[in-house]
Amino acid sequence: MSALALSPQLFSIFAGLVEEACGVHYAAHDRELLGSKLAACASDRGYDSLLDYYYRLRYDDPDQVELTQLIEFLLVHETYFFRELRPLQQLVDGHLHEVIGARGKARVWSAACSTGEEPFTIAMLLDAKGVLDRVEIIGTDISAQSIAAAASGLHRKRALRDDYPAELGARYLEAGPGGVAVAPRIRAAVRFHTLNLFDGDAIARLGRFDAILCRNVLIYFRDDHVVRVLDRLAGALTPDGLLAVGVSESLLRFGTSLACEEHGSSFFYRRVS
Fold it and tell me: If residue 210 lies in a helix (H) or strand (E), which one and from where to where?
């Protein structure tokens, strides 16, 4: 067997290391997928043995430089402008409109925002309603590379899919041969930071939000880790704040401190007092 092959024993310790670092859970049926990625990353870093690579990551990487590079390599960064648009429109037209009317301002956090298309979409919708200057938007992700790409406002061609709303696209995005550029006003409206959703202290430092988006992220975590993250997100909501998850995700089976509500044709979660 090749030293870069992922045996069941190596799979177990690597999967545990990755989950401990970022929460992403690899089940037994993911062994081949994880093995191919680990072999590629280890080889690129000059290792010809996965066991040697593991020892470096676990015991000889005090600043977690090597581990951070591995996590960057493993993470899925699939996102695009106007993804699952209807809940975002409902959030802006309904909840955030009410919050701004009542308090004059609002705060929105796009958690695990990858390269920033989601918070930029929120900014476009808010600007189209004339209230962008009343909303603070924060975008965070565990990946420093993704956050750097988000802050640049420059995106790959695939960030704009064929069914995007043409009026918003024409107003706020410039698509060219090299990719898609975000309008300066929209780019300036979002502040980006690196953040691990398992870092409770870092989340607490962000303060409270009227709306939190954590969409298509929790599906990569084990149930007990989902509950931990949800407890921290719930704690970051204002008393009347709403949490949005992906349209195919449901939190009802987790028994958390969040209650499901339907707004329009979209579902959101509110903290139970």
Answer: strand 209-213
**Residue ranges, the chain, pLDDT below 50:** 1
Round to whole Å and give the CA distance between 83 and 209: 21
Residue-range domain boundaries for the chain: 8-74, 85-271
Residue 145 and residue 72: Cα distance in Å, rounded?
A: 7
pLDDT at 155: 95
User: Sheet harboring 179-182: ordered strands across?
Assistant: 154-155, 179-182, 173-176
- Please determine, looking at this structure, whether the domain spanning 85-271 carries the CATH number 3.40.50.300: no
- How are beta strands 179-182 and 258-263 bridged, if at all? unpaired
Question: Can you give the pTM of this predicted structure?
Answer: 0.86
pLDDT at 2: 63
Backbone angles phi, psi at 210, to 5 degrees: -80, -20
CA–CA dist 172, 79 (Å, integer): 18
Q: Using DSSP, how many helices (H) and how many strands (E) does the chain show?
A: 12, 10
Helix 31-44 vs helix 50-59: angle between axes, to the nearest 10 degrees?
Answer: 80
> Residue holding tokens 């704009």?
160
Q: How far apart are CA 126 and CA 186, in angstroms?
A: 10
Closest of 239, 219, 238, 240 to residue 229, by C-alpha: 219
Answer yes or no: are the C-beta atoms of 110 and 135 closer than 8 Å: no
